[in-house]
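Reply to dn_fold:

You asked what the input looked like. This is it:
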Amino acid sequence: MLEYIKGYVEHVDEDYIVVESNEIGYKVMTSLTTIAELQHHSEKICIFTELIVREDSMTLCGFSSKNELKMFKLLTSVSGVGTKVGLAILSSIPYTSLYTILISGDVKVLTTANGVGKKTAERIILELKDKVKKVMHISVDHGEVIQETLDIDHTSFEDAKAALLALGYSHNEINSAVSGIDASNLSTEDIIKLALKNLMNR
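and this is what came back:
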């Protein structure tokens, strides 16, 4: 129904943005990746959308790239993965990294996303491992990205998230703060310092 919206970002929240177009404000549920990319934009933006209609609700989801939208549609096509979980996955793992996680079958990394247990991760990979190659067209060095993903010290990352949570930050704030951090060769303390810096600059 709605392919995309062109307008201006009028408001940014933890899990959605409001885009004003022709004097109408559209509440668009989205990922932290898209929020981080668009929150400081003052010029007109284009957000690619998907209107999800349920018996008791209508939810407009949108992303700054067509590929992220495609990934969201793939994720929510899996049984047991709804809008909330699909957005949570894309908020925890950028879609380019998620692409390589799926084709490499890395269950462990996928379970680092909020709301994704081992069984759900296994089901997602089983259903999408081959499908994602046909639907997505991402120009990346798959081997390099997979290796980078596998080299992350997840223990340090999770310890840092736990520490930030104890300081009173929300899961969304924490995921946004750490999403751009390259954790290779970083200690838990280093990750916390970088995340706090990101949080203070928001």
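Residues 71 and 178 are 21 Å apart (CA to CA).
Hope that clears it up.
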